[in-house]
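User: What would this chain look like folded?
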Amino acid sequence: MMTFWQRARAVWLGLALALAAPHAHAQTDPSQLLERLRALPGVTSAVQASTSIPGTYFYRLTFEQPVDHAVPAGATFQQRLTVLHRDVLAPVVLVTHGYGASMSATQAELTHYLSANQVRVEHRFFNTSTPNPPDWSKLTIAQSAADLHAINLSLKSLYPSGWVSTGASKSGMTSVYYRYYYPDDVQATVPYVAPSSHGIDDRRYAAFLSNVGPSDCRTQMQAFQVAALQQREAILPLIQDGQYTHLGKDRALEFAVLETPFAFWQYLSEASCSQIPPASATPAQLLEFIDAVVGIEFYGDATLDYYGPYFYQSATQLGGPAYEENHLSALLRYPGQDVPGNYPPANVDKAFDASIMPAIEYWVLTQARRFIFIYGDNDPWSTNAFRRMPRNESYQLRVRGQDGNHGASLATLTASERDSALAKLRAWLGMSPKAIDASRKAAAAPPPARTLMREDRTLR
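Assistant: Here's the prediction, encoded as structure tokens.
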């Protein structure tokens, strides 16, 4: 690990190189940029990789992080991140992943609209960004925020212009928590569909689902759930073979049926109500619908192990929804068990801290500055949207209609709302006239599709 003076010298050197480098040269010399990235404090490796995004270079990095930021001289791990480079003087979009991060050259919607550089950071305890052995007590939102802070401090010496953090779903939550601990690291934050839950069985979600959409659609969904559990013995043999040792196929099926209404409104819309199978549907048809909406394979060992860090965080700090069980009480074999503490990792203490989320909510409401929250009106997660005050230059935009689900984005807002949001971001980031011109040209072109990645789908 670098000493303090080595880190200070590297930061100074990186800043000097960034400020002294001619503008065009920084855009056209990828090998020199690679050496600058390798020289940044904390960076332990950097390699250039291919990109098909015009006008960009792409790099994969590893960054040395303390397992416990309170003990910087203690054990460390290697955290993965990527850099999509356009220009050292362009703004930076910091994508604060809540799960694993893709190591391919892709850009977030906001990166496209701002014609910006981009830094994607994989969340600690996912993929290879994991301490060995894993100390689960160090998987906290404060430790994750400190990871992002260290990366921000290091890369700012190369990218001195304005920074904006963003993320969707749990990644959006991560961007909020990061600002709570380090409010001045970035100039603005754009969280997409980021909820704030109260406890591990927040009843507000069930209340939302009891009123969303047409009443006949809700009635049809409940009838489907009853039919699926009544026919569970016929459905279970139809589930493809796989490892279900964590939950067992029977419990996995029951949890999937419980979560189907939530997932339906999370990803679909009223237009899909006609696709809900009738109570007379065959076991195969019932399972096909469950697979299409929830995905029974989600409850298999491989997927649950991958998302174990998320379940741990949900059980200890983040919380999650309670699912409506009353209309199914006579058919349930595992009532009240679909809570994060019953998911991996096993044999790990998961005491819930009920103090941190209310503290963050209060900070967002009273002090958070320059946030643009984006939600979908029919997305169950949006019922627990963060409240904010416009006097703090913090705003909430909501997507309505068929697009108002967990895929809500800048692209699905009205044109006037989108243009207003982008104008605010350009001003907050202090973008130069040249950067503003590039951003406006990018905003006039169709953005890359913000399809929900698997990481977004599994926020439950």
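Residues 1-27, 451-458 have pLDDT under 50 and may be disordered. If you want, I can go into more detail on any region.
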